[in-house]
Amino acid sequence: MKRRSFLILLVSLVVLVMGVTQTGFTQLAEDIPREETLIVDVPHGRAPVPTNFNIFTTSWNVPNRGIHQVMLESLWIVDFITGEVINALAVEGPTYNEDFTQMTMKLREGCQWSDGVPITADDIVYGIEATMKHPGMSYNTQFNLYVDKVYKTDDYVVVFELKEPNARFHTNFVDRWGAWRPFPKHIFEKVEDPVSFEFNPPVSSGPYVLKDFDQAGYWVLWERREDWDKTPTGILYGMPKPGYVLFYYYGEETNRIVAQANHNLDITELSFEGFRAILERNPYSRGYRKEYPWIINFDPVMTGFQFNNDLYPYNIKDVRWALTLAIDIVDYIGIAFDGAAAMGVLHVPPTPVYQKWYYEPLEEWLKDFALDIEINGEPFKPYDPDAALRRIEYAKERGYDVPEDPEKIKEIFGPGWWKYAPDVAEQLLLRNEFTRDENGKWLLPDGSPWKITVITQPNPTHPQHRNALAVAQQWRDFGIDVTINPLENYNIPAGMGDFQVTTEWPAAETWGGHPDLHRVFNVWHSKYYKPIGEQAVSNPGAASRWTDPRMDKIIEEMEKLDWDREENLQLGIEGLKILIEEMPTVPTFGGPKAQSWDEYYWTNYPLAENPYVQPIITWPNLKYMLPFLEPVER
To answer: Which of 144, 257, 262, 277 has the fewest CB atoms lying closer than 10 Å?
Structure first.
């Protein structure tokens, strides 16, 4: 039957899994055809306060239930697949004066709120002033720190006068899973407290408006605006094809697999094991790639682990490098994700754009880089440019079909990693007075057994947990007693420095769609250093408690430059070199995501054959995918 109500399609899961009443779904489904609806997973769980659509505050209101994907538009937004910063509500990039004490923002004309009111400079000026006035609003601290005054020079031009030079003030408005986004002045100015205001029903700047939502927080239904052409999505890309988008939290992974097998969940995020299960159950399901490794390996996050550089013996560079060289990266990624993640030695992910910006320019330097130790009379060069080729052999042994083209191999599996050199690792430790016992187990210089505890998050499918499993096995094989400690509140001891090794990200996440690395390096500036017992400024990267005067200088030089300047990119290269030399944290592989797309109702998703936009469903860029989807006639 071509037209089916959601009651017929989803009643079994609604009643058995969600406990939502039939009456509620009947009301929802009366006039909503399945074939005009895209159903999207909500991996972060159900909304704790389903009635609250105000994500302009510091409270967590689950923005990825459609609020930032289809309801709201940003001023600027990064795309980590295309490597660009998209001008959305802003019509062009920011303009600074010579000393970066003034920034001008030009808005796109022709955009309207969903109630027909134009989006203008008045919304920006009011929004910034309201944010500065109310401490519970997101970006209150940043704006009070830097904004002297904000005003408009016409209906579509906003000027910020800054208290001090800041070449990256505009990054407060660049959406990379979060940014300051405009909210409607004509709505918020009528409420006494914008922090507690639930913004319900919400007024949209994006191409969809709220149709209905579940009072228990499991789902939100959005309907395409009649005036979709008055939004940046419509202006830039055309009409979104789905008439409706339903964001649905199905609970545990088994429910999501069943839902997609029954064509009641078009896009979902799964574990690697769950993904392989859905491929066996549903012939219409597929991954980002049609073949191994299937998954998305373009998430702009670098995974790995951090040493506590304030704790002996991890404050010794030789020890950090020894533990790095004790890792066989092919076996490591095999343990973590059956070889399906992309390896990388830099503190930025090995996505295509970062390979172009940083991995390729640094390849020759990496090949020549040598540690301060000689093996057979020659300086030891630790980089293995052929590590990805060894990955190919692993995949073949597992029975997977893999590409033969070297460039394709590098794109999918990463450009290279460090050599597996346990003999060199041993020499580095021996010269620091470590010893082995009669069973080959490592002893600290005081003769006590060397024991390492790795703290990690408890979700066994999460990349952080998978890194913990892999690194523990590698170091055990090397002769170290290693314990994995999964903690519900693992971020607390990591932030306070109460750890030896943590699988918190080895560096702050990149922009994804821009080469500027100030975002990555800044947490390591010595002015942000916190000793053990005080909360680190940021867990990713900064939990390591590592600083270096050379890195301070690079960060400070970056802050004097426009982020688009070639000199800024060169500073990024120099900063990455310092991180490699010192190895305060160890990058292992880019963040893999196992998403499954069901092509029963919709096709032309932004997948490997046609990556026209980033494909991850939780990101705010999802709206830019919708004009390109094609419905399947059934």
So the answer is: 144
What are phi and psi for residue 274, nearest 5 degrees? -65, -35
**CA distances, 143 to each of 130, 140, 201, 290 (Å):** 11, 5, 28, 46
Instruction: Please say whether the beta carbons of 128 and 140 come within 8 A.
Output: no
Collapse the DSSP code of 190 into the 3-class scheme (helix H, G, I; strand E, B; otherwise coil) and give the result: coil
Instruction: Output the six-digit token pair for 3.
Output: 């037209």
Element (H or E) spanning 379, and its range? strand 378-379
Q: Strands, E, within 178-326: which ranges?
A: 208-213, 219-224, 244-248, 267-270, 285-286, 296-307
Give backbone dihedrals phi and psi of 429, rounded to 5 degrees, phi first: -75, -40
CB 249 within 8 A of CB 48: no
CB 601 within 8 A of CB 263: yes
Per-residue model confidence (pLDDT) at position 9: 40
Give tens-digit pLDDT for 526-573.
988 999 999 888 889 999 999 999 999 999 999 889 999 999 999 999
**Contact (CB, 8 A) for 45 and 250:** no
- Residue 7 has a pLDDT of 32
Fill in the DSSP letter of residue 80.
T
Q: What is the pLDDT of residue 30?
A: 64
Match 């802003």 to its residue by tokens.
Answer: 90
CA 541 from centre of chain: 15
Q: In this structure, what token pair is assigned to residue 402? A: 């893999």
Nearest residue to 58 (alpha-carbon basis) of 2, 142, 145, 139:
139
Give the dihedral sign, CA 522/467/483/436: negative
Q: List C-alpha distances in Å: 2 to 34, 472, 487, 601, 633.
A: 8, 53, 48, 11, 8
Closest residue by Cα to residue 617 from 592, 597, 589: 597
What is the rounded distance in angstroms from the CA atom of residue 185 to the CA atom of residue 316?
55
Prediction pTM value: 0.86
- Does pLDDT of 365 surpass 80? yes
Residue 6 banded pLDDT, cuts 50, 70, 90: very low
Measured CA to CA, the distance from residue 54 to residue 74 in angstroms comes to 15
The per-residue pLDDT for range 322-360, each reduced to its tens digit, is 999 999 999 999 999 988 899 999 999 999 899 999 999
User: How is residue 57 annotated by DSSP?
Assistant: B
**Contact yes or no for 180/73 (Cβ under 8 A):** no
CA pair distance 54, 215, nearest whole angstrom: 16
The whole-number pLDDT of residue 11 equals 34
Closest to 87 measured CA to CA, from 301, 245, 237, 242: 237
Q: What gap in Å lies between CA 329 and CA 583, rounded to an integer?
A: 16
Looking only at the bridges linking them, the beta strands covering 76-79 and 174-175 are: parallel
pLDDT tens-digit series, residues 279-324 = 999 999 999 999 889 988 888 899 999 999 999 999 999 999 999 9
Cα–Cα distance between 177 and 511 in angstroms, integer?
A: 10
